[in-house]
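ok so I'm stuck.
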Amino acid sequence: MLNLGFPRDLVMTGAIFGLAAFVWAGWAQEKPPMHWAWRVVLGILSLAGIALAALSIPTAIRSWSTPTVIDPKSAAFVVYIVVFWIEVAACIALAIWATRSGRPDLIAPLILAVVGIHFLPLAAVFGQPIMAVAGVLLTAIAVVAAFVPADHVARSFWCGVFGAPVLLAVGAWCAVAGTQALRSG
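replied:
not stuck anymore, here's the structure
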């Protein structure tokens, strides 16, 4: 599931996924269930995301001179940039569409779906099948979140409470494996 050929990329994936978990757990606090325990769960997920990013970023910086799949002179870099900007454009377009359609409650699931889907081509770019697994899981969470009733709980809650743990688990696995591979040289 993990290709250890580019450990810096794995560590950076851990940092990015940690930050993403923090963001999704934060968005989930828009309108969680009334019981206080859910705020605690979301707070723990947020702190775990920041911790993962904070622990991964120094290692990524120290190993910045090591090889990466997305070398700026490579075709993989071009594909990465194109996928990134398609993701950004899709998120903006879907947020505008949901708002104009009177369905702003769908913004979080739509964005999570785009995030999940964008990991599918990135799994090929980085040669990391685990990114495809994360992409499928995040997309499935987004689809379910789009259809659950939103009367008492925001759809963003479902995206964050289930999406953040996926991002944390995959990110932590990548960060640990990448750090170990960097240390073993």
